[in-house]
Amino acid sequence: MWPCSAVTSARRSTSCAQPAPGGVRKELRKALTNATKPTRRKIRDAARERLPQKGGLAKWAGVMPALITDFRTDRQQVIIRDSKRGHDLEAIDRGRLRHPLYGNRNYWYEQQIAPGFFTETVQAETPRIRALVWGGLSAYLETIGEK
Fold first, then answer.
1. Quick check: is 10 in a domain?
2. What sign for the dihedral angle of Cα 19, 25, 27, 30?
3. DSSP string over 20-68
4. Region Disordered: which residues (predicted)?
5. Which domain holds residue 62?
6. H/E/C letters for each residue in 77-90?
7. CA-CA-CA-CA torsion sign (28, 136, 30, 9)
8. 27: Cβ–Cβ under 8 A, 6 or more apart, which residues?
């Protein structure tokens, strides 16, 4: 088996130890997609709940983040990325929001908001995702062994 960490936070990735063969790659991608879909929904919902409603930021940031899987031989990684343009999502996740004064981009203000809409959600979901991915891979590898 391949020792992997199932989830990473924004723009960080973890690698698997060995390259995944073709059949395993397909099953791993399927397991990752199924395991991370609820987490990606929770990230979207957390953004809508915790970010400021005024100005449309919560609605704007509350789009389901993408799942990126990379199974090249030099590195395998899983990234859940929220890559909307126009705002610094990493700063927003740290609790820092910058905005212009009534749309006037000559005057910018910094506002403190509740931090962690992205990272706290991912960290809370990591054990569940890891268990689902390992379970899916184990089941697939057992079916290979039976053939």
1. no
2. positive
3. PPHHHHHHHHHHHHHHHHHHHHHHHHHHHHHS--GGGHHHHH-SPPEEE
4. 1-24
5. 22-146
6. EEEEECCCCCCCHH
7. negative
8. 136, 137, 140
What is the C-alpha separation between 128 and 131, in angstroms, rounded?
5
Give the total number of structural domains in the chain: 1
Q: Which residues contact 128 (CB under 8 A, 6 or more apart)?
A: 35, 39
* pLDDT for the residue numbered 106: 93
102 sits in the region (left: phi over 0; alpha: psi -120 to 50; else beta) called left
pLDDT in tens, 17-47: 444 566 777 877 888 888 888 988 998 899 8
Sign of the dihedral defined by the CA atoms of residues 59, 13, 128, 33, in that order: positive
Residue 100 predicted with pLDDT over 70? yes
Q: Which two tokens mark 2?
A: 């391949």
Contacts of 112 (CB under 8 A, 6+ apart): 95, 96, 97
Residue 114 lies in a domain: yes
Phi/psi at 42 (nearest 5 deg)? -65, -35
Measured CA to CA, the distance from residue 117 to residue 104 in angstroms comes to 27
CA distances from 48 to 57, 60, 88, 93 (A): 8, 9, 16, 13
